[in-house]
Structures are given as structure tokens and as C-alpha cells.
Amino acid sequence: MSPSVSDDPKPVRKAVIPAAGLGTRFLPFSKAVPKEMLPVIDRPVIQYVVEEAVDAGITDILIITSRYKKSIEDHFDRLLDLEAHLEAKGKIDEADEIRALSELAQLHFVRQGEALGLGHAIGVARNHVGDEPFVVLLGDDIMHRRAGVLKGMIDAYNDHHCSVVALMEVDPADISAYGCAVAEPHADRLVKVNGLVEKPPPEDAPSSLAIMGRYLFTPAIFDEIERTEPGVGGEIQITDAMLSLLDSEMMLGFTFSDGRFDTGKKIDYLRAVVEFALERDDLGPEFRTILAEITERENLSR
Ligand code: UTP
Q1: Domains of the chain
Q2: Pocket of ligand 1, candidates 16, 17, 22: which has the most ligand atoms within 8 Å of its Cβ, to mutate?
Q3: What is the distance between the alpha carbons of residues 63 and 28, in angstroms, rounded to a whole number?
């Protein structure tokens, strides 16, 4: 099947970051504070996500929020009092860093009135995105730069002019936590997606290739989302809309094997904090010593 796109595709300029979910896996923390605002050292998870998009060349970002997530909007807003206070104290670098947050990209916010599922959240972006290809980055999912995922997906779109989804092999026992893809080799790190199923039980799963928090869609996905009925968990699942899209368009998978942190899951959150702290020049050396001490103590007490 050939992709239904012109030879001269529109550039990928826009990103959608869904961040309106209920975050039930991170209760009680997520009762009053959005899980996307969990700190990884000194910046919230969603800042890493926004910076990843900007690094990949995205200039326009729409964050899908809800009435409980106002702090996300505040985080990217100017805070003139604080900037003035820092400048008066001679803390110019800190003032610049705070100001730079509001200048990362053109940031927009829209609310998903009810958390009806990821597919529904992406559908809320329709008016803003219009007739352009766009990327989706889950707001609680950090992707390490070393994985090169978003850039790789945009390159794949520029070469093949079709939707692209990030895919990673997982332990077959864990596939029921993910959207699952059936695919065949295409080129280098790319596979051609032939089928998709949301959260299959391991015994029914057609593969252990899991969808991992980054998507690049042609605007045709919006019609498919509108036609999608609630699926697994009673939610409007983006995987179901993608499966319908496969009837009319080719879809590629960009495969990678490392560097993704689902910070909405406690153990992955901890891993993110440790890895990012170890990489920091100001914290890494001391933190490495502390970790070694803790590990030694644990080993001795076994
Ligand atoms: P998750 O499935 O990880 O989020 O969705 P959740 O539903 O909040 O998580 P749990 O299972 O209850 O802990 C991935 C991303 O999609 C957003 C979430 O905020 C998260 O960043 N999302 C999910 C929405 O924006 N709207 C939804 O209806 C569902």
C-alpha cells in the first residue's frame, strides 16, 4: 500500500503533549499535583518532554491539560516577580533560566474536559493541528537523548511521508501493559506496521513489540479517532484509531532498545531520577559515591 501523501510533504512543526490523565498509578501524590510535574532532580518531567520536542526541531507545542493541572501551565509562564528578585540579587543565570522556560517554543494549552483516554486526548488537538503532520509525546514519558527517537521518527517521515510510531521489544510477559504491534523489517531501524492491538493478554499477543510513548501522525488520524469507540478499559484508545488508519495509509515503526522512562510508573520514575542525577556534573560524582555506599551496605546486610 502506498502512503496517501504528496511528494512534497508539509514539515513536522507541531507537537501535542497529552497530560490530562488521572495518574492513578502515582496516587496519593497525583491527587493534588499532576504526575507530569514530578521532579526529576530540579525540573518536572514535562519540561524534559517539551525540551525533547524543541531539540527535534518542533516550534509549536500544544499541551492537553485538565482543570486539575493548572500548575503545568504556570510552570511555562513568565514569573516576573521572581525574575526581578533574582536579578536584584545578582542571580542572572537563574533569572535567565526561569525566563527561557517561557520562550522554549510557542506553547499552547487546551483542556480535555474528561479523561476519556489517550485517543480522545489527541482528538482534542484537532483544531489546533489542522491539516499538518504532528508528533505526540506522552507527558509522563521521558526519552533520553541517546535513544534519538523523535529525531529518527521525523527523519523517517521526511523520507517516507507516513505515520511513524516508536516501538521497543519488551519481555513477552509485560506486553499486556502496552499497545502491541505486528511488523515486518523495512529499512535500518524501521519496520512496516501490519497490525496493532491494545494491551493484549500475553498468551494472545501477536508479538512483544510495544508502542512507546512517541507517535508521528498524518492528520488523517483525526477522522479515525472520531470514529473510534471506547475500547480496553472503556477508554478511547489511540491504538484502535491507528489500526483503522492502517486500512488507508502505510505506517512505520521506529525501533529502539533503551532510554525510555515511563515516569508514571514508580520504578521507572526512580530509574529516571538516578540516571539523570548520575549524568549531572554538579551532582553525579557525589551521588555516585552515595549510591556505592548504599549498595555496599545492602550487600553486607544480606
Ligand atoms: P497514561 O495511561 O500513562 O496516563 O497516559 P493515566 O491514565 O493518567 O495513568 P494511570 O494509568 O491512571 O496511572 C499517558 C499520557 O496520556 C495522558 C496522561 O496524562 C499521560 O501523560 N492522558 C491519558 C490524557 O491526557 N488523557 C487521558 O484521557 C488519558
Answers
A1: 14-264 (3.90.550.10), 266-302 (no CATH)
A2: 22
A3: 23
